[in-house]
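This part of the workshop introduces the protein records we will be handling. As an example, a complete record with its sequence and its structure tokens follows.
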Amino acid sequence: MGAHAETGRAGRAVLRVLGLQSGTSHDGIDAAVVEFRVEAVGADGVALRGTLLHASETPYEAALRARLVAALPPAATTLAEVCELDTLIGQAFADAALVAADAVGGVDAVCSHGQTVFHWIDESGAARGTLQLGQAAWIAERVGVPVVSDVRIRDIAAGGQGAPLVSFLDELLLRSARAERGGSVAALNLGGIANATVIGPGTAGSDTAGSGSVRVLGYDIGPANALIDAVVTERSLDERGFDADGRIAASGRVDEELLAALLRDPYYAQPAPKSTGKEHFHGAYVRAHVAALGRPIADADLVRTLTALTVRTIAQDIAAHDVRLLAVSGGGARNPVLLAGLREELPQTEIVLADTFGAPSDAKEAILFALIGWCTLHGVPAVLPGATGAADPRILGTITPGSGPLRLPDPVARIASLTLD
């Protein structure tokens, strides 16, 4: 299929797939090149091994990030601005893709999530649409290989939330940990939004991609860094736009009155599966709650309170599922105040970084999109209905051909196991 495809021992191609994504923090582009090899084929599907060859993060140029943030809800924008951002972000992704591909001597395919700018949830809580910018044609033109993109909308069309897609990877990586411990285990991603995958005892016939009698539940819990980042940026507390090492939160105190008001948001009481984003949790949301207090609040106290909000909402959900092991990833995993808060609130839960299972916490979502790209090219559904609420699993995304004829590898029924190294 590409210059680096070869025939594996099971007669399947070995493919290098580059995963690209930018999350709800809107700060840059994560890239991960994974070399996937089919090690065995059985009645339950293929045993897949992925070797991480390269991982990197490319910050957005300041001017582009400023335009992107200025166009996000609840701000007004124009179709002209959306069109221009689609091109500019696509070109930024293409630049990052070329650097990552060159770092390993070339790749066979790319899967780009792009940059989410809107996730449409109606009044009933159902997802109706989602918009990611970053035109894939720029990547295909620059790198010269097929590009899988627009991966969320097929799940939404099938009745799902389009999120969290990472549950597909989480279930594969944590399968053995759940078998060893029994009970429930979970993965937690702390990006702009906190999302969780809970894997626990189920009933015979539970649909978890061939993992046996277990139940997988995935959903967006609420804000992780989204509100903290908004305050840090708006109040110019750190030029990087986030609370580095939790230093601001560590210097403040929780405002219990404000925290109680924030916890009354109806979103937290909605049943899973559910999804949310910066359409709901943004700077104006914080300003409205602070104004309702009728008194000022110090910067550090506000950041500490928003950090406590993240801790409290996550802890109450994880505790409700009696989770024995929690594997954490995302930018929030580098915030010691946040992690210390979770450990304090969840004393019965072992909390580790996702690195323990072969997925570096900073690169996990980019690895996910590399895996989704591999699945789409091989005709494998890469979504768990229990996590998104879709009617059935679906093959995700659309494919933009590279510089030559589009040749797809032989289809695969499913992934029976995944090992990352």
